[in-house]
Each structure stands twice: as C-alpha cells, then as structure tokens.
Amino acid sequence: MVKKKNLWITLFVMPCMVMFCIVYAVPIVTVLFTSFCDYTITTKPAFSGLKNFQLIFGDKDFLISIKNTLVWVALQSTFHVMLGLLMALVLRRKPKGWKFVRTAYMIPNIIPTAATGVMFTLLLNPSFGILKSMYGVFGLDMSKIPNLFGNSKFAFWTVTCTWIFYSAFNTIIFLAEMGAIDTSIYEAARVDGAKPWQLDRYITLPLMKNVVGTCVVLASVAMVSQFDIIYVTTKGGPGTATLNLPIYLYKTATLENNYGKANAVGVVQILVGLVLVVLIQGLFAMGKEKIKKEVK
Asked: Most exposed among 2, 46, 189, 251, judged by the fewest C-beta atoms under 10 Å?
C-alpha cells in the first residue's frame, strides 16, 4: 500500500520536476558552464578558465553595478518593507476610509513596472512634465528645471522613488498574517491593561518575525533582478549612476556580444541572491521555531 502511494506521489511530482529541469536547471547549468568559456555570437563555447571573472572584476563599471544593486537591496529590504508593515498596522485598525486607502494603495502595484517607468519619464520630463507646471506656478526660472533622470546627481534617487513607496504587496502579506493571530491573545492583553501600541510592540510584531523575513527576502531578490523600470527610465545612466547587475549583464550580452562574460555576470548575480537569502534567513532565524516544535 505504501509503495503504491509513493508511486502515485512520484507520478504527480514528475511533470513538475521535468518542467523545472527544462526551464530552470538546464539553463542554470548552461550559464555556469559557459561562464568559464570564450563565447560570442560568432564562436562556439571554448573553455577559458577564470578569464571572464577576471574581466568583470577588473571592470570599474561592474563594481559600481554591484554597489548600486546592494544599495537598492538595502533600501528595499528596510524602508520599502517597513512602509508596508506600517500601512498594515494602520489598516488593521480599520480607521475611517480604510477601504478606499487600501484600494488606492494597491493600484500602483497592479501597473506593470515598465509602464510605471514610462509614466514617471513623462511626468518628470523637464519640457512638459509636472516640474514645468510647478516652476510656472511659483514664477521660477524655467531654464533651471532639472532633468531628474538625466542628471547623475539626481538619477539614482529619482529611479528609487519610482518604486520604493509602492509596498502594497507587502501590506497584503502582513494583513493576512495579522488576521491569523489568535484574537484571544489580544483580549487577554487588553484585560491586563495593554495599550494599542503595546499590543503591536509585544504581540503582533514578535509573532510576525517569519513573515517579515519572507518579505525582506522577496524584496531583496526583486532588487537583485530589477531590470525593466531602470532600463525604461535611464538605461543605467547617466554614466553609471543607475547601473545595476541586470543592466550590466544586458549591455555585455547585447553591445559586446560577449555571452561568456555576460554569463559570468549572471553567475555573480545568482550568488549574490543566494548569499542574501541565507543571510536574511539567519538574521530572522526563519524556520528554527518550527524545527524546535517538531523536535518537542
């Protein structure tokens, strides 16, 4: 009976495993292998050792792309996630107009990021965007309207602002987790005289440690692979102001036609993502409580 059950489990899992191998495993192995090869659009892969990795780590632009990526990861995993958590704590109390706020806050997350990039490019265009209207209203010199996406002093933070405030996805996850907390815990705390902020500080937040860690992981991984909104707004420029790993990889593959070097960048990108996931899981001790319960 057990063998028959295991057979059915294997049959049901097999299609998923086959698809995983075709869509993920084989491409990842291919990327890993070709990252150690001389491989261009006109040549077949030829093993060259660590040459591609020496090239990218010797390139100043690549190091800048790593720095920009990690800064965005830090911003996304702190401010972005904490904003989503703050919104969830507020909406959970159902203040006046909370349904409208929840819906309005969700709308930007429904819009594709590429469309968001186009929208902000038009909105902040110095020739006809909102800045021109504001300068006109206040009677300021029109010739001094800054090109926020085209100026290296402002580009990084302007691109950051196109997504950093849109954390409704995290808010929904937090609200779902808060709804799963046993209400009797809050009732007992209220009987003991706990104030609303104390309920959040000593009950809600400690019980949400794992889901906060999950949101931090999702936010960090999203920033390691962020491409479309940066490409649409600045294409990694001006200069290297908004250059990150995916944009650097894209330019290497398309402009240089050097697939071996591009795949070396891809390997570094994968490793950065894995290291971040491991560090975040360790920081939040995700899964350890579950293991302790199972042992008991």
From this structure: 2
